Amino acid sequence: MALSFDPDTIQLPKGHFIGGRYVDAKGVLPMRRPSDGITYAEYPVADADLVDQAVSTAKQALKDSGWATRRPRERTNAMHRWADLIEVEGETLARLEAVSSTRLVGQLIQGDVAVTAEQIRFFAEFADKEGSDLVPTANDSLGMIMTEPYGVVGAITPWNFPLSMAGWKIGPALAAGNAIVLKPSEMTPFSTLYLAELAVRAGIPAGLINIVLGDGPTTGNAMTGHPDVAKISFTGSTAAGSAIMANIARTGVKPMTLELGGKSPQIVFADADLTLAANAIANSILVNAGQACVAGSRVIVEQSVAEPLIAAILARMQTIKPGPTWDETSDYSPIISERQIHRIDAIVQAALDAGAECLAGGKFLDRKGYFYAPTLLSNVGQDSPAVMEEIFGPVLTLQTFTDEEEALMVADHPTYGLAAGLFTRDLSRAIRLTRRLQAGTVWVNRYSRSRDHILPTGGYKQSGIGKDLGREAYQANRKSKSVLINL
């Protein structure tokens, strides 16, 4: 399968997707390709009136289609057909994703596209397997906890994994009987638009999935504050999550799921398989050039094995092949924008000014587009900018420890608690530290999500509220009522 393509030949979906069709919209924001910096499209910004149109369409489609009250297996079957079509149209989805984002076309078919189809199927199966519960009450009464969909769910997805993040949001919302209005990032909307088009082609009623294009201050605020949007699901930065919470509070009260920023530690003990650890650590920061909320950006290694671990990480960093996202031979991504690459460099330079030592990288790559060299910084303290701030780029920091208590102390971050990695052959230690690490996800002797979609993801501290994926994501898209009947 030849996946490389000429980005100038790609036909991009145009406009918002509301009620099962594209709605023409005038572009106002320039869009630049990360791989070469070329302006290639303009992006519209939906105002409050258009958001209201999308929400009203979703509300009416939910009523007219009877989606929430259909036999649950009908919802399951429709979503399975959608997943099948996602796989059939995988090449088109991959190219639409690669042209605007940091995702490499050579990794998308077996990665993001396949995972998105799996997620849709996974959530589809909850529709006829999760429901109300009978609960123990007095013998002369019958107690039930009934669940039902919220109605219209609002979702906002980030730019770093546009396709799979859309699957995270749409899958559980639809399976649970809701309609959805989703705003993708203004930098990476095209695969999400086509995903919604495929849903209608697969037989999911038009209007249940609506995609509105726009920015956060105008479009996002209109959606999150809309009185007919009953729940919000957001993945993005902690700052943006805080702004969403504030906007919701100004306009009322509604439940929300927020998966936010991270500054995740990876702790390596002297008894670990250092080759395995070095590969996992390097891959965690090289994949998508570190542009992932769970990027394991803080390496915390036992002092006695720091040198061989560093050598192995540096060796892996030297093997990268940067290139445009539309070249299937590329294996190292660009940074999403000029603004972001300069922010990454500013944090690195601030860390160096504060006394850090640069063991690799710390500079722009000399090529077209927004590429930053894989970077490893040592001699950093807990107050270093590179340790404190979520960089969202290919930057690792290195700290050392001599015992478990020191390792846990260094690993603890005052702001974030999204994920953590732990490398050791000692099972007792692994369990002991897993219980104490302040993170919503802990990986032991690995550092990456698997395709076990049953495992939920979400953070501690300011890394979020609630969970995506897993049973929890489905349940978060249904509300419950208690019922007590006297017999």
Description:
It is a single chain. This protein has 2 domains: 7-261, Aldehyde Dehydrogenase, Chain A, domain 1, CATH 3.40.605; 265-455, Aldehyde Dehydrogenase, Chain A, domain 2 (3-Layer(aba) Sandwich). It is 38% helix and 20% strand. It has helices spanning 48-65, 72-88, 90-100, 105-124, 162-175, 190-201, 216-224, 238-251, 274-286, 306-317, 338-353, 385-388, 404-411, 427-436, 470-475; strands at 16-18, 21-23, 29-32, 39-43, 133-135, 141-149, 152-156, 179-183, 209-211, 231-235, 256-259, 265-268, 298-302, 357-360, 375-378, 395-401, 416-417, 419-423, 441-444, 460-461, 464-465, 478-486. Helix 6 (190-201) links the parallel strand 8 (179-183) and strand 9. Helix 3 (90-100) crosses helix 4. The termini are far apart. The relative contact order is 0.14.
Task: Offer a few descriptive terms.
single chain; 487 residues; alpha/beta; Aldehyde Dehydrogenase, Chain A, domain 1; 7-stranded mixed β-sheet; 6-stranded mixed β-sheet
